[in-house]
Every structure is written in structure tokens, then in C-alpha cells.
Design brief:
alpha/beta; Rossmann fold; nine-stranded mixed β-sheet; six-stranded parallel β-sheet; 22 strands
Length: 485
């Protein structure tokens, strides 16, 4: 391969153009950003060079004002688009500067009045540029793989497939199939898609268009963010209308778990540090956390750090927390979302002062204190493609209590008679996702916490469980290598 060089002590195995709408540390609304931001460094250790293409949102333009222009198109869906190249926090970045599409108030997808009405065009433009760069190269740099993330980049594999791939292979990763990038069929020409591909076997989706479906049917490979989620997506209760598409491509679908940044999420690096071999600091962190919120909890202190939505199972908490509190437990909630659920959380705090406290909003530093000081983290999601919260819990010895779905099922070894006897349990799982099963799990949590020997063993198991990016990066690198072979 032309221009091969050494990356992290390894000969370069290939090049990847990653295209997404979010990337830590630049722009984040959810876990997608964490994955996109973490993959380049993790893959570099395996010999793969990855560049990340993002929209130049208003919040990013000023910082890139002096970056060189490496690509330009004067008619990019209604205006001029330029690609600026630079580096931030060790990431090799390409920013698509198209003010008519991205220089506006609000977040990546919406403003105070709702979703941006031209989102289909905004992210089709991102996909169009990604496909062109993949096909034509950029200043002597040409990727072997185009890796698209979620609906926002879903048209990228389609543009590559319909206009000539130029030897480039494509991968699309489904982070959450609930978001599908719908557009009316009347936009087919506007989105520069071929009319002959508008049929159920290709672009047509319930009479319209879906950028996610477009990526699913045209990419060389489809990944999801956990093996269990990959299997679930072929079932109607999880596939959300796309289960048939996923099933039809079953031979080209795989699940690769996400990881977490273990240098950022590290109990050894917290203000009150501790480790698997010395847990004294965790007891102090717990005492400090209880003092901060005015709690006195004789049993396990549980936390919820989450968007407050039904998908996350937050609506189950009012039914199960009263018995948990009566059994000696306590709860801290950090998050925001559905106003009715925010009100329900405040109601629990009012009902159980000194045992339940709520902070509406999000605070990164506070979330670290939550994981440092809590005994358990509750993740009762109805579906969860991968989830990072339970991995933070494992890392901190804050035992996850999770619904047995998606990535939660793949990362937590539930405490059962067999796993306890074998000494391998790392948390608790429950199924089905209802108040009865959740309440039974919390009852088991109370029992396990009261057995100091068993509890300490569970904490140690959890903290030793690998949650970093090493295994995941190797799986992606192996997939890329198979595709270009």
C-alpha cells in the first residue's frame, strides 16, 4: 500500500475513513460520540490509521478557522462545502464546513423549536462528501474502508455503491436502530439517489426513504454494538421495522461490543482513589457522597445515571424503589428527559427524604462521584444496543443491576447459584423487563450486600472484568482485514 508507515510501533495495515455526526471531545449528545472518538486511538495500536469526518457545526467552526482546505464542492446540496483538515486531542479530523447546512443555532439535530427540517439534506451532504473522499482520495490519502455510523452517515455506503466504490469497502455500524433517518420519496432526486433503486429490495422504506436502510442494504458489512443486539435486531420487538432487512443480511452482520476509556473512567484517578486490591477509598467516597446529598443508607446505595425515558426503564422505578428503601437501600438519580419522569423522580425524593435524592441535568464530575461512591448502578433498559453505564459500574466495583437485553446481557455476568458457586458473577441481571422482575433483582441486591464476603468478591470480579477498547479494536481490525482481503 502506497505511503505505508509505522503506527504505534506497528506497520500500517490499512486506512479507514470514519464518518459520523458526533465525536468526543468535539460534539456529543450520546454514546455514539464516545465510540467515534475512542476508535482511532484504539485502532492505531492495531496498525490501522483512521480519520474522522464530521460536520463543522457552529460550535466547531471557530476552532478550525486556520485549518487548511483539502477538498471543495461549490454545489453541495445548495451551497459551497469545504473540508478542513486538522488535529484535536490526537484525533485526525476532517470537518465539512458548509455554513448553509451546519452554521446554525441549536444542537446537531435540533434547536429550541424542534428538529432541523432539512436534516435529511444536511446529513446526505455529509454522506456524499464521505463517499467522494473514499472513492477519490484526499491529498494522496485514500482509505481502504469507509466506516459509517448510524442514520446520519447511512447514505455514504449507498453513494459509494451506486456511483462506484473505487475499490473501497464499506461498513455501517448501528448504534441505535430506533433512529432511522426518514425522508419522503419525493426527495429521491434532491438527495442524488438513483430512481431505479427505489424499490423494497433497495431504497424504498414504507413508501419513503430511510438513510439507515440505505446503508444497511448497500454496505459490505453491518455491525452493531453488541452480539446480543445483533441477534435482537432480527426480531420485530427490537428491529423497529428493519428486522427483515437485518435478517436478510445475517451472513454479513456481526456485533462488536463498545469499550470505555479506562484512563478517564478510573477509580485510581478519582479524588478519593481506590483499586481492586485496596477498596478503603470506596468506603470514604461513599461516605462523602452520602454527606453531599444528606443521605443515611444502611444497605446498598444505588445510583441511576441516565436519560430519563421509558426506553431506559425509568418508569419502573416508582414501583420498585419503595420496597428497596424499606429493605435498607438508598437511591441517587442523575439525569434529565421526560418531564413526567423527572417529576416522578422528584416524587420519590420527597417520599423518602434521607434515602433518595435527585439531581435533574447532567454533570460529568458528579457522575464520577456517583460511580466512585455508590454500591450499585441500576440499568433497567427495555432495549440497550450496548450501554456504557454498566461498564463504568464494573470498572468502579459499583455492581450493575441490568435488564437482560442487548449489550447489558453481554457485559454483566448475573449472580445466580451457578455463577456465585463458580466465583465469576459481576452483577445482577433480570428478565423480563417489568417491575416484578426488577423488584426481585433489587431484593437479591439487598441480600448480597448483607453478605460482606460475597459482596467483596463480586466487587473484585467486576473491577477485574475487561471493559477497555483492546478487544473491540482487535475485532474491528480483524473485520477490516477480512474485507480488504
Amino acid at each position: 500500500m502506497a505511503g505505508a508507515r509505522v503506527i504505534h510501533g506497528q506497520k500500517q495495515r490499512g486506512r479507514v475513513l470514519s464518518v459520523a455526526s458526533e465525536c468526543v471531545p468535539l460534539i456529543k449528545t450520546g454514546g455514539l460520540a464516545d465510540v467515534v472518538g475512542a476508535l482511532p486511538e484504539a485502532l492505531a495500536k492495531a496498525g490501522w490509521e483512521m480519520r474522522v469526518l464530521l460536520p463543522a457545526y457552529r460550535s466547531l467552526r471557530a476552532g478550525a478557522a486556520n485549518w487548511p482546505v483539502v477538498w471543495e464542492e461549490h454545489d453541495l446540496f445548495g451551497g459551497t462545502g469545504r473540508v478542513l483538515a486538522g488535529e484535536v486531542a490526537g484525533l485526525s479530523l476532517l470537518l465539512l464546513d458548509a455554513p448553509h447546512l451546519y452554521d446554525r443555532d441549536g444542537g446537531p439535530y435540533s434547536n429550541a423549536t424542534g428538529d432541523h427540517p432539512d436534516n435529511a439534506i444536511r446529513f446526505a451532504a455529509l454522506s456524499w462528501v464521505a463517499a467522494r473522499i473514499a472513492r477519490e482520495g484526499l491529498d494522496g490519502w485514500k482509505p481502504d474502508i469507509l466506516h459509517a455510523h448510524d442514520w446520519q452517515a447511512g447514505f455514504a455506503p449507498a453513494y459509494l455503491a451506486y456511483q462506484g466504490a473505487g475499490g473501497v469497502k464499506s461498513v455501517i455500524t448501528v448504534h441505535n436502530i430506533a433512529f432511522q433517518g426518514w425522508a419522503p420519496a419525493s426527495m429521491l432526486g434532491t438527495l442524488r439517489l438513483p430512481a431505479e433503486a427505489f424499490h423494497p429490495g433497495a431504497l424504498e422504506y414504507y413508501g419513503g426513504l430511510s438513510s439507515l436502510k440505505a446503508g444497511l442494504v448497500t454496505a459490505d458489512w453491518v455491525t452493531t454494538v453488541s452480539p446480543t443486539y445483533a441477534a435482537e435486531l432480527m426480531r420485530p420487538e427490537f428491529g423497529m421495522g428493519l428486522q427483515g432487512v437485518i435478517a436478510s443480511r445475517a451472513a454479513q452482520v456481526s456485533g462488536i461490543l463498545n469499550g470505555v476509556d479506562t484512563s478517564v473512567w478510573s477509580p485510581e484517578a478519582e479524588p478519593v482513589p481506590y483499586s481492586v486490591t485496596s477498596l478503603a477509598g470506596k468506603a470514604k467516597a461513599r461516605a462523602d457522597l452520602c454527606a453531599e446529598f444528606g443521605l443515611e443508607v444502611p444497605g446498598p446505595l444505588a445510583i441511576v445515571v441516565s436519560r430519563l425515558t421509558d426506553q431506559k426503564g425509568i418508569d419502573l422505578l416508582p414501583a420498585v424503589i419503595p420496597d428497596f428503601v424499606l429493605g435498607g437501600g438508598g437511591l441517587l438519580v442523575l439525569g434529565s428527559g421526560d418531564p413526567a419522569l423527572e417529576g416522578a423522580m422528584r416524587g420519590l425524593a420527597a417520599q423518602f427524604p434521607g434515602r433518595v435524592a435527585v439531581r435533574i441535568g447532567y454533570d460529568e464530575a458528579l457522575s464520577h462521584r456517583f460511580f466512585s461512591g455508590a454500591d450499585a448502578v441500576l440499568v433497567p433498559s427495555r432495549f440497550e444496543p450496548c450501554g456504557l453505564t454498566q461498564m463504568y459500574g464494573l470498572r468502579y466495583g459499583t455492581l450493575p443491576v441490568v435488564a437482560s437485553v442487548g449489550g447489558l446481557a453481554d457485559t454483566v455476568i448475573g449472580a445466580s447459584p451457578a455463577t456465585l458457586m463458580a466465583g465469576v458473577a459481576t452483577g445482577l441481571q433480570f428478565h423480563p423487563v417489568d417491575a416484578l422482575a426488577f423488584g426481585q433483582a433489587l431484593s437479591q441486591l439487598l441480600t448480597l450486600h448483607a453478605d460482606t464476603t460475597t459482596w467483596t468478591r463480586l466487587q473484585a470480579n467486576a473491577m477485574r472484568h475487561p471493559v477497555g477498547w483492546e478487544t473491540s479494536a482487535k475485532a474491528y481490525a480483524d473485520l477490516y482485514e477480512r474485507l480488504i482481503a
